[in-house]
């Protein structure tokens, strides 16, 4: 494995050094993940687009005064879930802004109308609704979580996620990406990583690169994730996501990370992280995403045949058939996985609430990947 000290020196490397790094990362991928590259066929449910944070790159969030600000009703959640079921999805991913009710009266009132005083309590009930009414496995991306909030969600969510994004405190200063974002203070996110580990939740996290962090800060964030995994064994995947500029964000003129920067970060992540942690990069945020395979990734993340990428709505998902073809061209095979990775399903006594085990096990074949592999894009 690559040490932190060595990784810190790789901020500026030649083309040849990058090629060597990528080869070493690919070798690790091959040794631990074979020739299989996975994805999760999922439907996305943006439960609320209100949020108490104001990240400078976000287009998802809507101020409560905006006409499009909303909290989805149970009926809307179920209607979206059913569209996912019809298209062979196995996972329902709840994504939502962080705790808008703590900052905005209008968000509190909207939640109260639904009969709740906290977004996490509503989320837990919506997960239960999905479990009761559909065949899908819920995964929640609810941001920073307290111990109590994790306890509320764990019985109904097969896995959870929160992008660490960065550990740079500098980026919380005025004019930076995370100014006025209480949930993006790095220590808060590290605490959630730790708490979900203590509570044995299969967890997805990752970095958002190119938002103003230095190479050193990026590498230190990877080291922090790996340390949390070393303590608790709960990190199932790490996503490396590249910042995307958009015309209507505060960071509209901020440069996007280059492809080489992305490849270098992926390769270093593959070499620094425990090899059992899945390494993922989104395929819809770079036209040359197939190159990521040569930098050691083994997963394309969630792809929806039903819903758009709500976080990057200007970048549609690639067709699953096309992704299978480009994966195959690299000598690898695309396979469908569940939201919970095989290693955690095998260790369900530790990592799963008993209520979820029967459903997840019935959805998995003996190697832990999805039993019913849907071929390509149904639509
Ligand atoms: S990126 Fe997430 S935390 Fe930041 S403003 Fe958007 S919804 Fe809120």
UniProtKB/TrEMBL annotation:
<dbReference type="Pfam" id="PF04055">
    <property type="entry name" value="Radical_SAM"/>
</dbReference>
<keyword id="KW-0408">Iron</keyword>
<dbReference type="GO" id="GO:0016765">
    <property type="term" value="F:transferase activity, transferring alkyl or aryl (other than methyl) groups"/>
</dbReference>
<dbReference type="InterPro" id="IPR013785">
    <property type="entry name" value="Aldolase_TIM"/>
</dbReference>
<dbReference type="GO" id="GO:0046872">
    <property type="term" value="F:metal ion binding"/>
</dbReference>
<dbReference type="InterPro" id="IPR006638">
    <property type="entry name" value="Elp3/MiaA/NifB-like_rSAM"/>
</dbReference>
<keyword id="KW-0456">Lyase</keyword>
<keyword id="KW-0411">Iron-sulfur</keyword>
<keyword id="KW-0479">Metal-binding</keyword>
<dbReference type="GO" id="GO:0044689">
    <property type="term" value="F:7,8-didemethyl-8-hydroxy-5-deazariboflavin synthase activity"/>
</dbReference>
<dbReference type="InterPro" id="IPR019939">
    <property type="entry name" value="CofG_family"/>
</dbReference>
<feature type="domain" description="Radical SAM core">
    <location>
        <begin position="37"/>
        <end position="284"/>
    </location>
</feature>
<dbReference type="InterPro" id="IPR058240">
    <property type="entry name" value="rSAM_sf"/>
</dbReference>
<dbReference type="GO" id="GO:0051539">
    <property type="term" value="F:4 iron, 4 sulfur cluster binding"/>
</dbReference>
<dbReference type="InterPro" id="IPR007197">
    <property type="entry name" value="rSAM"/>
</dbReference>
<keyword id="KW-0949">S-adenosyl-L-methionine</keyword>
<keyword id="KW-0004">4Fe-4S</keyword>
<dbReference type="InterPro" id="IPR034405">
    <property type="entry name" value="F420"/>
</dbReference>
<protein>
    <recommendedName>
        <fullName>7,8-didemethyl-8-hydroxy-5-deazariboflavin synthase</fullName>
        <ecNumber>4.3.1.32</ecNumber>
    </recommendedName>
</protein>
<comment type="pathway">
    <text>Cofactor biosynthesis; coenzyme F0 biosynthesis.</text>
</comment>
